[in-house]
Amino acid sequence: MASVVVDRERRVxxxxxxxxxxxxxxxxxGKLVQLHWGVRLAPAEAAGLxxxxxxxxxxxxxxxIEEQLPVDGGLRxxxxxxxxxxxxxxxxxxxxxxxxxxxxxxxxxxxxxxxxDTHFPLTVVxxxxxxxxxxxxxRWTTLRHTGGGDTPVTVHRADSGNWxxxxxxxxxxxxxxxxxxxxxxxxxxxxxxxxxxxxxxxGLTGHQANPWxxxxxxxxxxxxxxxxxxxxxxxxxxxxxxxxRFEGRVAVSAGFGHEGVxxxxxxxxELTTPPVLGAYSEGGFGAxxxxxxxxxxxxxxxxxxxxxxxxxxxxxxxxxxxxxEGQLEIARKAADLGVELFVMDDxxxxxxxxxxxxxxxxxxxxxxxxxxxxxxxDEVRRLGMGFGVWVEPEMVNPDSDLxxxxxxxxxxxxxxxxxxxxxxxVLNFAREDVGEWAFGxxxxxxxxHGITFLKWDMNxxxxxxxxxxxxxDGDGDQDRLWIDHTRxxxxxxxxxxxxxxxxxxxxxxxxxxxxxxGILARTDEVWTSDNTDAFHRQSIQHGFSQVxxxxxxxxxxxxxxxxxxxxxxxxxxxxxxxxGGNLHQWSPEDIAEARELVARxxxxxxxxxxxxxxxxxxxxGRGLSAIQYVYxxxxxxxxxxxxPEVLPAPGLLRLAGLDADxxxxxxxxxxxxxxxxxxxxxxxxxxxxxxxxxPGDWASALIRLRPAR
Length: 709
What we know:
Number of helices: 14
CATH architecture of one domain: Distorted Sandwich
CATH superfamily of one domain: alpha-galactosidase from lactobacil brevis
Distance between the termini: 35 Å
Number of strands: 38
Shape: globular
Strand content: 25-35%
EC number: 3.2.1.22
CATH topology of one domain: Beta-galactosidase, Chain A, domain 5
Family: Belongs to the glycosyl hydrolase.
Structural class: alpha+beta
Protein name: Alpha-galactosidase
Helix content: 10-25%
Pfam families: Glyco_hydro_36C, Glyco_hydro_36N, Melibiase
Keywords: Glycosidase, Hydrolase
């Protein structure tokens, strides 16, 4: 299904996915421009677009917005995707197409277009990949310094690709923004004229935005309309700019790094950017989301076929009051609920009794764990659970043995303050010795104690991001740390997984500060937010679901907020269920109800974690809303009506994604129950829901359907 076809006479390359085509063209003046990104075209149809006149700007200026990688150079005044400086201060690129290469891969097809500067020793390779049974187009770029000597090329901007949208009567963007404890807040607004930029200068993906944008003509809904999405697979600083030009075209350029950061490309070196991904859908925002979810499960996640376990995390119950007997006591209570993975959070290591000391000293606190972690780990396993721990490898407290021994390992500049946040400093993971140190103790920790889960946290952004040793070594390229820190985090995770096949990793960064397709390629789930209030979580999880699948969304039931236990569980059951409440304070009735709800989640979790997701009804938290999952012949619907309104709630809820001719019936643990209805009726008329929700605040329910036997 996936293919790349080249028409050499008209110099057109057509990349086709399951339902779409992405076509590009080398013009007579040597530019690579986009011809089409949308519905699937035959190669001949795509090649025919090369003869059409290009839209030009007023005064007949070139329209650089159409280019695959607009450079800083020539008659271009838009957002540059690539900016470099050559010897002599030359900041103008002139690229010419040298060759192309098409390669069949095990699950798709790859196209490489090689360009070279007409004078200076720089080669730019534009990479493309289309996959089988998937509508995502992958792009990335490689810069190669092909010269000799010792003169570097300075790279100011190296985006992974530029994406052009078709001419539409209107443009609307969808994106998420927020802050710590308020991540993934969805916004759908008219795209302003000019340039709209999202990004992170934090050294990680960030809480304030996430590296994706959806665009439509302003009329798309959850279940109909054309939607274009661009997403960047990178976990460090990044920038994504959508520019809306006067002449009526829109393009999106995205890549790693942020303004003011430069990298030096030495002779013989190359710099490869992270993937930037594009997807087109004709089925509205819901279909766009499902396309991204499917892509993540099929081509990103290391072990997407697994079913994630129900976990218990001790943080919200005991905070830093961590010691062996207390952890054993709460582990026994968790096991009684049906929990399958027990995770001990912060406070188990070094002299870590609060946030002011111990980070960097990764050995069990001898006063709290006199015999190390073995007794706790063995007892947790005897209780039938896996054993996991919280770690924060990229951070250090100044009050630690590590910092006293290696003060040069943190990000810092000479003659400047080392400003602490949460009494922490950031370790420079771009240093090979820091990466080797981190891998060494993590490898030993996991191997010695049979740990099967790491909650990998990162609780503060970069500051004073210097690397003085690079200056002393004569390199001077300190800004490479913005790239190499993230890449070495990836490398440590990859090495750990290779050494310990049973290890699973959760990405956490002060909540949802490191969520992207880059980190998902080496982790199994992500911590969505430190905000565990069930009502707040609904909007957070709604925004998260626009691009990322439920099977990676860690969601806990805690004691936060005012919602009753069942409502809290139902919200958390929309992803990977975890429990973080203080079980010592739960009543016998709470324990019994929780035990039943954990069992019900286990019945539906394969459907939730692997199924197609449909967002139904009102926006979460406003009226009656629902999330529906369809996996094989199983259907699970989570209903929410947090607050009654003056007008009655809808009595019927139209479902989606069903087999129209199949006959469905509600299914409970005791077997089939209730009336039967065809999928056609359930999707066009609806499922009766009014009587399923208790009157008053915080009404919620779980409904399971199966084809009638």
